[in-house]
Amino acid sequence: MTEHDSVIRAAGQQATAGRPSGSGHPDPRDLSDSGAAQPAGTTWELEPGVRRTVLASGLRIVTEEMPTVRSAAVGVWVGTGSCDETTAAGEPTTHGCSHFLEHLLFKGTGERSALDISVALDAVGGEFNAFTAKEYTCFHARVLDEDLPLAVDVLGDMITSSLITDEDVEAERDVILDEIAMHDDDPDDVVHNLFAAQAWGLDSPLGRGIAGTEESIEGMTRDQIDAFYRAHYRPENIVISVAGNLRHGEVVEQVERAFARGGFLDGTASPIPPRTGSPLAVHPGEVRVTKPYEQVNLVLGMEGLWRDDDRRFALGIVNAALGGGTSSRLFQEVREHRGLAYSVYSFAGAHAESGVVGVGVGCLPSKVDQVLDVVRAELRTVASGGITPEELLRGKGQLRGGLVLGLEDPASRMSRLGKAELVHDTLMTIDQVLDRISGVTVEECQAVAEIFARPEILAVVGP
After folding, report:
1. How far apart are CA 61 and CA 16, in angstroms?
2. Has 214 been annotated as catalytic?
3. Per-residue pLDDT at 38
4. 221, 59 Cβ separation under 8 angstroms
5. What is the C-alpha to C-alpha distance for residues 18 and 30, in angstroms, rounded to an integer?
6. What's residue 165's pLDDT?
7. 3-class state of residue 415 by DSSP
8. Can you give the pLDDT at residue 23?
9. Nearest CA to 142 among 42, 195, 74?
């Protein structure tokens, strides 16, 4: 499966910093050491209950103890996604290879068949899945705490020892082509892919779909996929994040056993730091595609903020006021007052090199012009006048509540740690994020809202 671009909500997915275990609980605000700077073979406490160990191979293990639950969630986060694929002229394309490989790692190893992998987790009532995004791929499981060693062992076997046979490649090729066709039948997927293609261009990884195209998948060979696997699935490019009822030292031992297969952990390396890059231009413009849908789906947006921009907290509040809920300006004006559409929302997507903001709407074909007029009017209003003090308070409450309620279970805590370690430089505790949200002012919201006046990108799909 694939994952849509990240959306700035409360920016709770920050990464790692800390001190060696046993040094007390220092304020993470004062720390700046990343995983890449932590000496191999050491364990640091990042915040109370959260620890990170860096192995000599560069593999990072980050855990959060939640002693009041009876479950655990584990994720293997690989710092490779569709942005790492090639489409250069004269070279064999690997567009869609990350997603193809994600599927193939479930097909069997020297120890387990595809059925064995499924049965192992089904037999203990576990949940097991994976997804591919632009900048990373994640394989994850949720099990009872007593079954965590099994989940770690199955994941370690898959990541280090998958066979990737010719037969499996051919069988899964058809599955992925079906998945691409399924996404082509989903208006929301189609319009967002068109929006990204217009914003960044098909010659940019951010502008291309994660799953690839029919042409790229049909032409991809087993050798290409295997070479991609060997090049990118390396210890220094992997983070293991685990949250739940656990002990950090025991998890480290489980990971070292599970990932030692085939000499995977042999050798020494430093963890690969968070992804950076040169600024990626966003291209205004309009693209329309005719599809035999009942509705028209459109996305109207413009250039936004990069992932680590300090203004992201203010933008999250503006986004909430503009189109983040049933009390938002867009919902009230487009749906409640005028009845122009059933679905209307705003979003903010951020990457290491670029970002976008925008509005998505699904409406009848006869109402497209009216919808665009209203949406543009609301964007002009927020760009010129910002938000009200009442909207500021409501937006803060929405972000704070969404952040805390979204981190009540081990799976969400595991995701927070894994994403953080891969894409950010510092770990912000939940309290720190809440403080940053609470500290946003009306003036900061006014300043960041001016981005909604930038040149627009419009994608439209429908009859």
Report:
1. 11
2. no
3. 87
4. no
5. 9
6. 96
7. helix
8. 35
9. 74
- As a three-state string, the secondary structure of 138-203 is EEEEEEEHHHHHHHHHHHHHHHHHECCCHHHHHHHHHHHHHHHHHHHCCHHHHHHHHHHHHHHCCC
Q: Cα(198)–Cα(256) distance, rounded to whole angstroms?
A: 45
Residue 191: alpha-carbon gap to chain centroid: 19
Among the listed residues 45, 102, 179, 303, the single catalytic one is 102
Rounded to an integer, what distance in angstroms lies between the CA atom of residue 94 and that of residue 82?
9
Q: Which domains does the chain have, with CATH numbers?
A: 19-263 (3.30.830.10), 285-462 (3.30.830.10)
**CA–CA gap between residue 14 and residue 39 (Å, rounded):** 21
Helix ranges, 238-345 (H): 248-258, 312-323, 329-330
The alpha-helical segments, DSSP class H, found in 294-425 are 312-323, 329-330, 368-385, 389-405, 410-423
Residues with pLDDT less than 50, the chain = 4-33
Q: Which two tokens stand for residue 446?
A: 């006014």
pTM to 2 decimals?
0.90
Read off the amino acid at residue 51. Answer: R
- The continuous run of DSSP H or E covering 283 comes out as none
The encoded tokens of residue 308 equal: 């680590």
CA separation for the pair 427, 420 (Å, rounded) = 7
Q: What pairing do the DSSP bridges indicate for beta strands 238-244 and 60-65? A: parallel
Query: What is residue 276's predicted lDDT score, i.e. its pLDDT?
Result: 82
